Amino acid sequence: MQLDVRELTEAEFPLWDRLAAESPQRSIFAQRWWIDIVTRGGGRLLGCFTGPNLVAGLPIWPCETLGVRRLRQPPLTPYWGPLFRVSPGKVATQITTEMDVLRALARALQEWQDITLTFHPSLTNWLPFHWEGFNQLTRYTYRIDHLTSFLADGSNLHKDVRRTLRKAEEAGLTCRDQVDPMEVLRQNDLSMRRQGLVGSAEIAAFWPQLAQAARERNCLFTAAAVDGTGAVHKATAMVWDDRCAYSLLGGGDPKYRQSGGGVLTSVREIEFAATVVPCYDFEGSMIEPIEQYFRQFGGSLYTYFLITRTTSSRLRFARLLQRQVNAVQQRLRRSRTMESTADVEQGSTV
User: Fold this and answer.
1) What would the pLDDT profile of 161-202 be if each residue is shown by its tens digit?
2) Does the domain at residues 4-141+305-327 carry the CATH identifier 3.40.630.30?
3) Is residue 338 scored above 60 in pLDDT?
4) What is d(CA 336, CA 326) in angstroms, rounded to the nearest whole number?
5) Of the candidates 219, 218, 221, which has an alpha carbon nearest to the alpha carbon of residue 250?
6) CA–CA separation, 285 vs 340, rounded Å?
7) What is the secondary structure of 255-321 as a DSSP string?
8) Per-residue pLDDT tens digits for 273-302
9) Which CATH superfamily does the domain covering 146-298 fall into?
């Protein structure tokens, strides 16, 4: 099979739109409007052609850091590519085509010194990328399939989730739908500050445009847990495509961490998702406490691949320094937490 990998021209964008609407790897994150906003207009579309036919595609985001040419994964974009056209024929023929296409795409990325991209969970073959010198890290997410039947069976939720939900409702918390998306961003920033971190300036820059574009396309749902005084305890945002809803962004006021607002908004998102799509994706986390929280909602565990390759020694060294800085910051945060706990215990004995 003769394959040609090149960047799509503007005149060929309808080919991408059709691929992004029909591919087994399709998601809202592969749609052109999403790519354009989260990359601030810097995204590009690679196409793999046989003659005039687009058989696969890969969105990319070329950037430069410390003089190193990079392909980055955009923020708020958990799944990226590649996307394949539905391929009929025998299984062996389909696998051969997939191998050839993946290898052609991997080779087309060799000019960049640093590459990060994530595959859709439905794409479980990264072997040609391995042959071309790439690395793979398995990541995990939780998904609830068949939402309608899931909600009909209340036993799917862990008893701790049900108990926390009752506690929140008894305390007078209610869930307010379609709150201002900027409130979600503000609550996310509060959560980041509690952890001694700084909210993403990149997300803050494009979030108003992204939220507006999603709302115009009727694929944004925001919710907030609010008490009787009007104080917001937790706020979240969810988007969806034709198959699945994705928990996109959220956060909460540290003063109300134990109020149950997080469970209340998560359950409300799942309930709303069931009215528009059959599946809900928590956009899972590799952070143990977050994974434990998601697990209690009764979803199924899915894997997906993070694909990377770095040939720049300069960037490797910078990342080594960053990891060391992060380790020091984590120890300092842990120390401050222990000191705060000691202060509380001492005060209680006075």
Assistant:
1) 999 999 999 999 999 999 999 999 999 999 888 776 666 889
2) yes
3) no
4) 15
5) 221
6) 27
7) GGTTSSHHHHHHHHHHHHHTTT-SEEE----SSHHHHHHHHTTT-EEEEEEEEEEE--HHHHHHHHH
8) 999 999 999 987 788 888 999 999 999 999
9) Gcn5-related N-acetyltransferase (GNAT) (3.40.630.30)
Q: Pick the range with the lowest mean pLDDT from 139-143, 183-187, 333-337.
A: 333-337
User: Can you read off the two tokens belonging to residue 293?
Assistant: 């929280």
Nearest alpha carbon to residue 254 among 316, 177, 340, 339? 340
Q: Please report, for the chain, the start and end positions of each structural domain, with discontinuous segments joined by +.
A: 4-141+305-327, 146-298
Give the pLDDT confidence score for residue 333 in this predicted structure.
59
Structure tokens belonging to residue 32: 């052109």
Same fold, 4-141+305-327 and 146-298: yes
Q: CA 123 to CA 95: how far, in whole Å?
A: 12
Whole-number Å distance between alpha carbons of 302 and 139? 8
Please identify which residue in the block is written with the tokens 């000691």.
342
| Whether the predicted pLDDT of 91 surpasses 90 | no
pLDDT at 336: 52
Q: Which of 17, 16, 3 is nearest to 106 (CA)?
A: 3
Q: Give the C-alpha separation, 164 to 195, whole Å.
A: 23
